[in-house]
Amino acid sequence: MDNKVYIFDTTLRDGEQVPGCQLNTIEKIEVARQLEKLGVDVIEAGFPISSPGDFNSVVEISKAVSNPTICALTRAVKKDIEVAADALKFAKRGRIHTGIGTSPYHIKYKLNSNEDEIVERAVAAVKYAKRFVEDVEFYAEDAGRSDNEYLARVVEAVIAAGATVINIPDTTGYCLPKEYGEKIAYLVNNVPNVDKAILSTHCHNDLGMATANTLAGVTNGARQVEVTINGLGERAGNTSLEEVVMAMKSHHDLNYNTGIDTKQIMKTSKLVSTLMRMPVQANKAIVGRNAFAHSSGIHQDGVLKNRENYEIIDPADVGVKESSIVLTARSGRAALKHRLHVLGYEFEGTELDDIYQQFLDLADKKKDVADEDLEALAGSEKEKQDRSIKLESLQVISGSSTIPTATVAVSFNGDVFTETASGNGPIDAAFTAVKALVKRKVHLEEFLIQAITRGSDDLGKVHVQVEHKGHTYYGFSANVDIITASVEAFLDSISKIG
Ligand code: KIV
Ligand code: ZN
Questions:
Q1: Ligand 1: distance of its center to the CA of 101 in Å?
Q2: Does the CB atom of residue 256 touch ligand 1 within 6 A?
Q3: Bridge partners (DSSP) listed for residue 158
């Protein structure tokens, strides 16, 4: 059997059904373009009959991307199929995804029908869809709770009618991995014409088993997986693309291949999370904020000695720059030394012991120890004063009816230079002026402002992360004036560039 597993992304259809996650057409096009870069084989772009917006999105996505097949969902209803075919008219490769419920619940209570009639309706829908497109996928809704013998009968009939892909959805997320795997195996072994179509998994995560079920489907013969970015989807969501792809990639012995460029995973996850206003849980596998963060001393020490001691995935493989080390009271000397090194300080021997002791005292009082705390420990105040690049003065004009403008004076080894610039806001204006002064190509990667407590008269802390010639540099400052703190932090990061 061929080991290529096709990736069918339904973020824009099943994922988008989540309340509050709706996207407009422009946003959908942006996601679709990123999915194309990611290398998915099929994009399910919408359910065209459901609304003019969905119809339009399928049309526009068909125009905007060319490599993936564009798929449109329908019920087993003629009008749905006609509208889907119309929406797909610009697709280079279009697929109609039609289907009907096959479980006793759906047949009796949802469709008020019987088994024979459902087979007839399924066959009729596939035949009708074939009039418009060659590629027709059939879904047996609630296949997870359907009787395997009956399911095999439906599948055989729709393949005979021309279906090219057969989707076996565990619509309610009910199955156990063994059960779902056996369902796929049953179809492989009992549907005489099964070799004329590709079997597809489509698992929901109600019992937290969507990824396991999907992989059980693949190991038993399915060769398409229906997934969403970040596992988005109704209720507990759908199978997450990143989990399935990375599970297959990490287990080389399984020998499956996909067309996914895994380095695009994090970028895609962030885009979908931002546009759909759905934060990713911190401990989410592969794409969560903590997926590559180590906080216990033993783990940190192990990772610094050899990443593979505690990581099965190289963060770079999914587009994450490096593992992060979160300093807490459980961190060891090696982690502290490493972080100080990143911040530009070198400590060895008894000096390291001393600073480690001070660090432990501080970490006992605070939950996480931040860079500025370390800088303070490492005598950064003196360092700051000695630094060759310093902010001498800053003047900002800003308001609701004026173009934000900043004049920045910076001293370089004692010589003061001044620059004025405008920008989208006062900080942008000031940063633009700084960039003109330092004459270095720096790219701002992260910019974080935090109030130390809650009062408006409080100190604001600013962290920045900049990139210069492939290296990352961190800057920090704290000031009651948040714009001054931002410029100081920016200069702090620039001053660390060798
Ligand atoms: O979960 C499901 O059954 C579906 C079908 C409409 C494919 O999303
Ligand atoms: Zn679904």
A1: 9
A2: no
A3: none
Q: How far is the CA of 171 from the centre of ligand 2 (A)?
A: 5
Interval between CA 99 and ligand 1 midpoint (Å): 9
Q: In this structure, what token pair is assigned to residue 160?
A: 């005979």
Q: Which domains does the chain have, with CATH numbers?
A: 6-275 (3.20.20.70), 293-384 (1.10.238), 389-495 (3.30.160.270)
Ligand 1 and 14: CB distance under 6 A? yes
CA angle 177, 4, 66 (to 5 degrees): 115
Say which residues have a Cβ less than 8 Å from residue 251's Cβ, sequence separation at least 6.
none
Question: Which tokens go with 68?
Answer: 């993936």
What is 410-464 written as a DSSP string? EEETTEEEEEEEE-SSHHHHHHHHHHHHHT---EEEEEEEEESSS-TTS-EEEEE
Does residue 202 have its Cβ closer than 6 Å to ligand 1?
A: yes
Q: How far does the centroid of ligand 1 lie from the alpha carbon of residue 233, in Å?
A: 11
For ligand 1, say whether the CB of 156 is within 6 Å of any of its atoms.
no
Q: Which residues contact 252 (CB under 8 A, 6 or more apart)?
A: none
Q: What gap in Å lies between CA 11 and CA 238, rounded to an integer?
A: 9
Q: What does 221-285 look like in DSSP terms, one character per residue?
A: T--EEEEBGGG--STT-B-BHHHHHHHHHH-GGG--B----GGGHHHHHHHHHHHTT-PPPTT-T
The model's pTM:
0.73
**Burial environment of residue 46 by CB neighbours within 10 A (0 to 12, 13 to 18, 19 or more):** buried
Tell me the mean pLDDT per 10 residues along the chain, length 498. 94 93 93 98 98 96 97 98 98 98 95 96 98 98 98 98 98 98 98 98 98 98 98 96 98 95 96 91 92 81 82 91 80 87 84 88 77 72 60 93 94 90 95 90 85 58 84 78 90 84
Burial class (CB in 10 A: 0-12, 13-18, 19+), 423: middle
- Atom of ligand 1 at shortest distance to CA of 14? 8
Cα 76 to ligand 2 centroid, rounded to whole Å: 16
Q: Is the CB of 171 under 6 A from ligand 1?
A: yes
CB 493 within 8 A of CB 475: yes
Question: Which of 49, 50, 167 to probe ligand 1 with, by most ligand atoms within 8 A of CB?
Answer: 167
Q: φ and ψ at 415, to 5 degrees?
A: -90, 130
